[in-house]
Each structure stands twice: as structure tokens, then as C-alpha cells.
């Protein structure tokens, strides 16, 4: 029996002292803590990675959404002539409600900043039939027109009748040349107003036949024209007064429901700037709502 009991005795070399046992327990606890810490860190890393991926995805979606919104706004400012737009142009001088289109020919000029200031103060968007030659001199003013939501239409490049009205093709060439310098000024190479005003108007004059043929050519190139049915008379006399311009507005607007008002943004038309607040006040007093051709060319 004594020999059997000795079989269960642990050899001395495998026996641990209390101190060694305590040390082993401490080591095991530390290892367990290390494992737990490592596991917690792994979980945190996995969670952080998932949160980062989610945040990055949300960031990417926000960027895409912002880009889409910018593109939507960009497209809104690019006129697109549709069949509806052509039909609208065919009935531009008729409307169920009273509406007024303020249009300015021949700019931009040194008067443009003041005109834009007045329009901004009054909360009105106008239409500017710009000359390409003046756009090249004042590109910043055209950029401001565009950025502030005004419609930039086309009045040709030179305003020299002998050059413009050599043939229908030269009219189209003037349009295209003006259109390109507008694109360069506003930094938008897709811009095309699709809207032309013949220098001197479409009707009558010694170039009437050329104009009529050119009008057909323009339409074939997705370009419509518009003249006017009211004016402030700033080109009727060399020295108009504020009172004269307002009187001419009253006379030519009359009882019309839809008025396209001819004014000029040329260097010499300082009185037009001075008369503009009174013209706007008169039209508002008569119940007119101001429009521009973004609402027509669509």
C-alpha cells in the first residue's frame, strides 16, 4: 500500500511554491486581460471601420447630391428652345394676365452696373440683348447678369447694318459670333440663348428681304426672334428726359396685357438709368408682373 500511495506523489521538481503559484495566477490573469483588451480593441476597430465606411458612404452621397444639385441649377440657366417655347414666342404679345418684359439692347456698358443694381433692389429679372463687341469689352458685367438670373439674349456682334445684312448667312454668323463671346464671358460653353433681336427690328427698312430670309435661317438653327410692342423712347431723340421716357412708356404700353419693352443699355443712355425706377413703379402701379425670357424659352 505504501508503494501505491507514492505513485500519486508529485516529484519535487514539478512542485510550485506559493510564490510561484501566485506569479502564475498573475500571469494568467494578465494574459486573460490582454486577450480581453485585444478582443475589445478588435471589436472597436471593426466598429470604427464600419462607422468610417458609413461616414465615407454618406460623404460620397452628399458630394454626389451636391454635384447633382449644382448640375440641376446649371441646366436651369441653360435656355432650351422646345416646341412649347416656340409656341410661347408666337404668342408673346398676348396673355391672360398683365405681364411686362424689360429688355435692354446694345450693352453691356458703363450703365450696366447701375441698371443691375436697380433691378436687384426691385427684385426684377430682365432680358439683355447684348452686342458681342461690347461683351468683349465688359465680360465681367455679362457674368454678373448671368449670375444674378437675368436672361442674356443676342443682338449680334457688330450692330453695323452693312455688315450684318449682307446675306441671311451673315446674320447667322453675327449671332454665332456673339453667342461665343457670351459663352466665354460667363464661363459656360453650352450656353445658347436661342433668342435674337434684329438690329433695327425685323420689320421694314432697306434690308427687309434679307431680314425675312435670315429669320427663316435662324429658325432652322433653333433660334427665334422678338421685337417689341412698347418702348421708353430713349432712341427716338438725342436728349430724352426722365419725364419723356416715362410718358413714352405710358403711351406705348396703353392697355396691352403683354408688353415687351424696348430700352437701351448703351453708353449714351444715362437717362434710361435715371428713368428706370419710375418706369418700374409705373408698370407695377398698373398691375404688371415682370417676366424674363427664361419663362418663355423652355
Secondary-structure blueprint:
Blueprint: H1 2-6, H2 18-76, H3 83-90, E1 99-105, H4 112-122, E2 127-130, H5 132-137, H6 139-147, E3 151-154, H7 161-164, H8 168-186, E4 195-196, H9 208-220, E5 224-225, E6 230-231, H10 242-253, E7 258-264, H11 270-285, E8 289-291
Helix pairs in contact: 4-11, 6-8, 8-9, 10-11
Structural class: alpha/beta
Task: Please outline the major beta sheet.
Answer: 6 strands, parallel
- Quickly name the level 1 CATH class of the largest domain: Alpha Beta
> Average pLDDT, to the nearest integer?
93
- The tally of helices reads 11
Uncertain spans: none
CATH fold assignment of the largest domain: TIM Barrel
Radius of gyration: 38 Å
The helix fraction, in percent, is: 40-55%
- The name of the CATH superfamily of the largest domain reads Glycoside hydrolase/deacetylase
The 3D shape can be described as: elongated
Report the strand count.
Answer: 8
User: How far is the first residue's CA from the last residue's CA?
Assistant: 112 Å
Q: Provide the CATH architecture of the largest domain.
A: Alpha-Beta Barrel
Q: Please, how many domains?
A: 2
Order of helices and strands, N to C? HHHEHEHHEHHEHEEHEHE
The portion of residues forming beta strands comes to: 5-15%
Amino acid at each position: 500500500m505504501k508503494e501505491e500511495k507514492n505513485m500519486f506523489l508529485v516529484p519535487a521538481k514539478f512542485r510550485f511554491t506559493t510564490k510561484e503559484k501566485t506569479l502564475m495566477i498573475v500571469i494568467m490573469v494578465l494574459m486573460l486581460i490582454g486577450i480581453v483588451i485585444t478582443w475589445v480593441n478588435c471589436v472597436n476597430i471593426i466598429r470604427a471601420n464600419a462607422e468610417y465606411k458609413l461616414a465615407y458612404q454618406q460623404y460620397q452621397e452628399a458630394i454626389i447630391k451636391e454635384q447633382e444639385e449644382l448640375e440641376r441649377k446649371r441646366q436651369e440657366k441653360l435656355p432650351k428652345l422646345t416646341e412649347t417655347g416656340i409656341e410661347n414666342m408666337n404668342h408673346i404679345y398676348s396673355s391672360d394676365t398683365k405681364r411686362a418684359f424689360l429688355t435692354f439692347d446694345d450693352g453691356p456698358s458703363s450703365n450696366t452696373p447701375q441698371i443691375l443694381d436697380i433691378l436687384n433692389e426691385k427684385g426684377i429679372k430682365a432680358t439683355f440683348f447684348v452686342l458681342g463687341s461690347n461683351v468683349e469689352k465688359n465680360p465681367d458685367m455679362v457674368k454678373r447678369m448671368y449670375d444674378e438670373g437675368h436672361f442674356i439674349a443676342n443682338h449680334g456682334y457688330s450692330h453695323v447694318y452693312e455688315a450684318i445684312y449682307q446675306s441671311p448667312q451673315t446674320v447667322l454668323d453675327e449671332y454665332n459670333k456673339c453667342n461665343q463671346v457670351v459663352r466665354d464671358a460667363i464661363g459656360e460653353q453650352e450656353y445658347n440663348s436661342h433668342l435674337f433681336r434684329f438690329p433695327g427690328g425685323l420689320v421694314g427698312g432697306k434690308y427687309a428681304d434679307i431680314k425675312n430670309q435670315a429669320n427663316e435661317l435662324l429658325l432652322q438653327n433653333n433660334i427665334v426672334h422678338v421685337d417689341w410692342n412698347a418702348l421708353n423712347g430713349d432712341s427716338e431723340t438725342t436728349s430724352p428726359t426722365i419725364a419723356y421716357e416715362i410718358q413714352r412708356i405710358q403711351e406705348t404700353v396703353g392697355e396691352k396685357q403683354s408688353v415687351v419693352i424696348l430700352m437701351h443699355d448703351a453708353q449714351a443712355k444715362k437717362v434710361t438709368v435715371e428713368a428706370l425706377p419710375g418706369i418700374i413703379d409705373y408698370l407695377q402701379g398698373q398691375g404688371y408682373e415682370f417676366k424674363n425670357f427664361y419663362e418663355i424659352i423652355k
